[in-house]
Amino acid sequence: MHLAIVVNPTSGKRHGEKISGQAAQRLTDAGHTTIIVQGADAAAARDQLKLAIDGGLDGVLVVGGDGALHGVLDHVADSDLVFGLIPAGTGNDTARSLGIPVKDVDAAVDLVIAGNVRTIDLARADEAYVATVVASGFDSKVNERANEMTWPRGNMRYNIAMVAELREFEPLPFTLVLDGKTIEREAMLVAVGNGPSFGGGLRICEGARMDDGLLDVVVINPVSKPKLLRVFPKLYKGTHVTLPEFERHLVKEVTLTSPGIVAYGDGERLGPLPMTTRIQPGALRVFAPPAGT
Q1: Residue from 125, 117, 135, 126 nearest 284 by CA
Q2: Which pTM value belongs to this model?
């Protein structure tokens, strides 16, 4: 196969280039040909990738996390290209959901060499493809705050932003149109999941499957701030689904509206609500273990 390897050099604690070189060597040794796609910024890398695709490729591999994946989805979705993921980010929710090893580069490359291809769905939030979760509410307000901060770096900045946002946060008015049915809620957040988790393992849409042709719409109804802090650790295990404030709907399309709220998808800023998200069944062919393994 002729494969492009798209590199986010800042991924994996700035080891993206080293990881891509390791992957390229393994693939070459296995008889594949590779080209490295790496621009000065995300836009430049996307332009290079488009040129490579136009020149003829069998697949696109991304070295990075969910954000790096998100940046190339519009080039590989609904196409004959096979997508591969060499996890090197901080979140890696897509990799975890698909059973791709997140701490073993060789094992992730072995999935490509083995050639097992699985077809999964994507969410389409307005014009943007999303692999994991479209999030809006408390979590997106935390992201907005964290993006405005210049210090510290990494996950600690997110934690500080979360504490700061919690001090002034109040439940938000949401209007949801679920496959044509309108409901109104005050909620802490609303998440639309193609996959179960976001934010580095927060299983907000526990039970969501990436190949069932449905979106999981999760509403966290109002809780007190002390309870929100107590509940938060439950998200890592998915045990929050037993709480009375948890509400879940399975749909093919949802429109969310809440004044002044911005949505994030795959950890990346999508834009302000209202926003319509639709399921795109079978939109991505990906190197991954068979479902259920």
Answers
A1: 117
A2: 0.92
